[in-house]
Amino acid sequence: MRWRDRYGLRRLRGPKIAKFDREATDSDVEALIAFAKSRRGVEFYVEPETFATDTTAMAIADDGEWTRRRVGSPAVIRKVARDLALPVYDVQLTGYPARMRAYNERRKRAES
Fold first, then answer.
1. Strand-pair partners of 21
2. pLDDT tens digits along 48-72
3. Could you tell me if residue 8 is left (phi over 0), alpha (psi between -120 and 50 degrees) or otherwise beta?
4. ∠ CA 107-109-111 to the nearest 5 degrees?
């Protein structure tokens, strides 16, 4: 394991390398880990890569608070989730949880 690829971003991404606005970095994965460790009931949701962005993951806490970061490939966030003993879901199969939408609505009302 190389120190510049601590989470296997380059190794787990596979042979296909696409050009995006920027690639996932260790700091992206570390931000997800920090979020998960500082909140209760966190679940990860993997979002597929698009033409414009790399594969991303959302960490959603039990109160609906969330953060999104690039992860490079679904295998990276699965490894992180396994290490933290947290569930990971494919957002294309499960959709986003209602608590995330409720959290966004609460934030909108508070800002108004």
1. none
2. 988 888 899 999 999 999 999 999 8
3. left
4. 70
